[in-house]
Amino acid sequence: MKLLAPVSRLDEIEAIIEAGADELYCGVLPADWQQRYPAISISRRQAQAAHFKNFEELKSAIQIAHNLDTKIYFTFNAHYFILEQYELIKRYLKKLAKLNIDAIFISDLALLLYAQKYYPQLQYHISTGGNTLNSESAKFFQSLGAKRVILERHLILEEIEAIVKHTTIETEVFIFGSKCPNIDGLCTFHHGFLTIENNTRKFGNACMMPFEITTDSPKRGSKDSKSSFKLISSQKRQHIWTHTHIDDRPCGICALYDLKKIGITSVKIVGRANPGWKKVKDTTFLNNLLKFLDKKPNREKFIQVARISYYLTYERPCRYSMCYFPEVM
Amino acid sequence: MEHTLYITNLQDLEYFTESYSRIYFGTEFCQNLIPHQKELELVLKFVENHSISFSLVTPYVTDKGLQKLIPLFSYISDKIGSSEVIFNDWGVFNVIKHQFPQLKPVLGRLLTKIKRDPRIIYLREKISSNTWNYFRTTNLNIPWYREFLKNNGIERIDLDNPLQGINLNFPDFHKSLYFPYGHITTTRLCLTANCDQPEDWDRIGIFPCHRECQHYTFYLQNNVMPVKLIRKGNTIFYQNEKILSDQHDRLVYQPKIPI
User: How many C-beta neighbours within 10 Å does residue A223 have?
Assistant: First the structure.
């Protein structure tokens, strides 16, 4: 099982590979795109910190990674593009093919069809924005030339196992960072308003905003107490929901034992925009656990060590709502 | 214009009037709410008695969800042959394509990509025409994508009616518009499931479901949102009473929030 880590600066690549990353992923915010579509990123990250500055820098990144025998992937995973945007998209794909990128992450079916037709020599990974929740989706994307599917975050281990068992495509799961509270590819809130209006309160991510919650009046015959009970519950959970995305340490490491057994190809650390030291820290943390897994501990022992390591490394206890695989807790 | 009544449970057949010529039945958002075959039988009987058309609505699913849908596909194939199935998961489409070619796949609104963030309407004066156009357009304006859909037997597209309006300039497809509720986002970490269990109050996760969503609706308000958000079960909706488009040939009326 491989470890996939994010990069966004040339000077952090070596350190992240040294820390144990087997594969890297990255993005670019092209200037001509930003000029034309300032509120829309080609890879769903608006912050410059999450990207290499341009394709020249990407070229250097690829060289560094390849010199260290490490594959590097490019995120081109906006949920959808429209025809008018293909003038630029075609240019970028041409550059990526020339640069010998190892794979491209794609969410949009129309982009996959185009890229596969004109650049069949490249490899394509279906981003979590493509919504792979079952083995038939995985087969569908494989039939269109995809090499790997990045599974939806909201799957329990049993559901992941069913996908791996019934398919031959490579599979990837999120293991650390950014536990989105919604189904990624089916969420239509827009992230990126801040580039238009520098007003965080008005244009911050909707999934992080506080909401006042009310509920319908109890139906006739129902108990008022039960209604308020549910309202309190909903308010508490809404509070957690709005913090899921902000929290910087969502984690699924206890499931590494099971994920390896299931046959997952790669586990992914989220955080392209994180500073280099944090990327190295997260990669080291995950790599140490994978090394421990290679020593074939029993499941119980592995989970115990994983939980202690998390506590010692990040100085916080495990939390149900921040756990990718709470069924393992 | 074809008028369709979209219902998620049998009781809602009470909303049927003679103005409707089709019934949508099923769920788009949760595999726990996939109807039982017995319910489907009763709806099909109703459809037959009223000489109207039928479409089965299906959600995004795991492999378990697929196993719940397959018997329903078998049943409607046997019963009415070429029924429409609204799919919101490419895996569901794959099953239809390979195992039930007699069924007519319709691209569901969850797979029709367009932003529905209500705040987009604030941007009209602040963004370039390129960006505004993006927010009002789907990837269905791409010819090779439409070609792919056609080659796979998809002739109809279902769409939400976003507050900022929507360009439906692809005359080579039939188009259905949902009214008055639009979907914004959905999750499997359902905030409603098990919400009456105190030990689960401070957690969100994939819990056992007791269909709590059938009893309660929550409204989310923040004054930066131009409309109230509606959380029903695992999904957040908005309500839009205005229809800006005139290029659809089917109106899918939701008498209640479709959960």
Answer: 9
Nearest to A288 by CA among A54, A21, A85: A21
CA distance A183 to chain B (A): 5
| CB contact (8 A) between residue A81 and residue B90 | no
Q: Which residues of B touch A229 (CB under 8 A)?
A: 196
Segments making up each domain of chain B, as ranges: 2-181+240-253
Maximal CA-CA distance, chain B: 54
Class of domain B2-181+240-253: alpha beta
Please answer whether residues A142 and A163 qualify as being in contact, where contact means their C-beta atoms are separated by less than 8 angstroms: no
**Does A203 have pLDDT greater than 80?**
no
CB–CB contact B117 A190 (8 Å): yes
Contacts of A40 in chain B (CB under 8 A): 131, 134
The rounded distance, in Å, linking the Cα atoms of A136 and B73 is 15
Q: CA-CA distance, B91 to B98, in Å (whole number)?
A: 11
Please calculate the CA angle B68-B73-B74 and round it to the nearest 5 degrees. 105
The pLDDT score that the predictor gives to residue A222 is 55
Q: How far apart are CA B202 and CA B224, in angstroms?
A: 26
Q: Which of residues 178-207 of A touch B (CB under 8 A)?
A: 181-183, 186-190, 193, 196-197, 201-203, 206-207
Residues of B in contact with A328 (CB under 8 A): none
| pLDDT tens sequence across B83-96 | 999 999 999 999 99
Residue B142 to residue A86, Cβ atoms within 8 A: yes
* CATH architecture of the region A2-188+248-328: Alpha-Beta Barrel (3.20)
B238 pLDDT band, cuts 50/70/90, is: very high
CA distance A42 to chain B (A): 13
Helix axes A276-294, A299-314, angle to 10 degrees: 160
Query: Is the CB of A167 inside 8 Å of chain B's CB atoms?
Result: no
Question: Residue range B51-79: average pLDDT?
Answer: 97
Mean pLDDT of B144-163: 98
Q: For residue B245, with 0-12 CB atoms within 10 Å meaning exposed, 13-18 middle and 19 or more buried, which class applies?
A: middle
- Rounded CA gap, B76 and B236, in Å? 30
ipTM entry: 0.96
As a whole number, mean pLDDT of residues A201-205 equals: 72
As to burial, measured by CB atoms within 10 angstroms (0-12 exposed, 13-18 middle, 19+ buried), residue A269 is buried
The residues spanned by each domain of chain A are: 2-188+248-328, 206-243
User: Is the pLDDT reported for residue A220 higher than 50?
Assistant: no
Cα of B224 to nearest chain A Cα, Å: 5
CB-CB neighbors (< 8 A) of B191 in chain A: 234, 237-238, 241
Cβ proximity of B256 and B177 under 8 Å: no
